[in-house]
User: Which sequence fits this backbone?
DNA sequence: GAAAACTAGGTACACCGTACCCGGTTGTCC
DNA sequence: GGACAACCGGGTACGGTGTACCTAGTTTTC
């Protein structure tokens, strides 16, 4: 955790920040699976094992990456006073950050950042619902439910996109490949609502941002209704 | 996709179902990372490469596992008429299934099942909100938001448990190891709400099931309020 | 100048998914 | 009954992975 110059020994050839930056560049462009210690070493022009002078292992690299991205949607240090707007903005900015870094959602779904920026985000999210007359347990549950929705929604969203990217196909080619299986499902007649989805979906809530916000607003409605003030 | 006896050739020594069962046994007991083609082959007493007669690759094995677990929380084929109770039950049973299979949440967070049981679950979830005067797009958004909450919540929940399991430590040992970092965070004074969490959390909503249900009920409240009938 | 504390990084090990291939078994058809 | 297609089991091999361990060089302190 200390990128600073130690007392003795030669000057380090690079820094944890440079390593993190290289890892982000690779993962953003080629996906999380493109990250390997050998690859990262090649990227910054060092020997593979030298990386272990800066991080304790690959997991540590991932932690650094997550914490770096967490900084991108850090809420302002002082809440606006409108808890709903603040929570909504945090959710939307979190999603946008995960869209900029398509590998992010898969990681944060199962492991939230315990680095400085992760903790800061958590603290500021709690501060958004502070002063509403809630116990810390309820505050935690409310913030947690919004995080759960955002992480769950975006993980599903990006999971599909990343799976598509891995195939190397475009959307048309992919749909053409799925067509026979889809046909079988529809022809069986056992899935009338799924058939309706295929036939008539997309008239409303066609914009992905709008779809995300729709569910988010339902959740925020429910939270608002449970608040002491009404 | 065809475990049936083919026309020619020797009788297969095992079946996709047996392979799936072995994979579930290993993953449930030792985690998803314990699943390897060599390990599975050893488990069912076959050569490694023979598995490829039954599945196209490791991803296919995972798909089979997910679809098998999906059968565990398949909603009844006819909704009760109480959409809220049905959606709530689906969420709770989905979570319970993911608790029985700790590896499941990590997988479904980014890749929903497109196998028979996955499609059936999807169809029946939609049928729960059918007949309420909603367009298929809104139905999709509502079901999707509940899925997002459940997947997001349980993925975070299980992610923590699985991370703990991987260390091999028990809760006390793990907390003792984190203590110095925690101390630093608290001593800095920059995280007063986080400090409150550490100090006073657990008085309300101490039961994990209750915590999960609390957020879920907020979401369902918000959905109820948006329904045409009120 | 010696020693301590750090640095870079090569080698090696155990494991992974799976492409490719060979040889054996079974059913069908002439 | 013989030929052959179609399938099965599975060994070998390749190009990857994370990282433990070790050697050797460099800088600072005493």
Assistant:
């Amino acid at each position: 955790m200390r990128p600073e110059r130690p007392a003795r020994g030669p000057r380090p050839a690079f820094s944890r920040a440079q390593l993190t930056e290289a890892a982000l560049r690779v993962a953003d462009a080629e996906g999380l699976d493109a990250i390997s210690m050998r690859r990262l070493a090649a990227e910054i022009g060092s020997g593979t094992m030298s990386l272990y002078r800066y991080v304790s292992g690959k997991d540590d690299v991932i932690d650094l990456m997550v914490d770096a991205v967490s900084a991108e949607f850090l809420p302002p240090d002082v809440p606006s006073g409108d808890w709903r707007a603040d929570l909504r903005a945090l959710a939307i900015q979190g999603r946008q950050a995960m869209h900029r870094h398509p590998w992010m959602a898969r990681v944060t779904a199962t492991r939230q950042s315990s680095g400085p920026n992760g903790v800061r985000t958590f603290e500021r999210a709690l501060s958004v619902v502070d002063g509403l007359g809630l116990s810390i347990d309820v505050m935690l549950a409310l913030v947690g439910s919004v995080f759960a929705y955002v992480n769950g929604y975006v993980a599903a969203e990006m999971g599909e996109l990343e799976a598509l990217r891995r195939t190397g196909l475009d959307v048309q080619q992919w749909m053409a490949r799925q067509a026979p299986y889809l046909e079988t499902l529809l022809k069986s007649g056992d899935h009338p609502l799924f058939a309706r989805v295929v036939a008539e979906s997309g008239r409303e809530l066609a914009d992905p941002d709008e779809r995300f916000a729709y569910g988010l607003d339902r959740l925020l409605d429910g939270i608002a209704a449970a608040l002491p003030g009404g």
User: Anything to note?
Assistant: Residues 136-167 of chain A form the longest helix (32 residues). Chain A touches chain B through 66 residues (CB under 8 Å). Residues 7-11, 36-38, 48-49, 52, 57-58 of chain A lie near DNA strand D (CB under 10 Å from a C1'). Chain A has a mean pLDDT of 95.
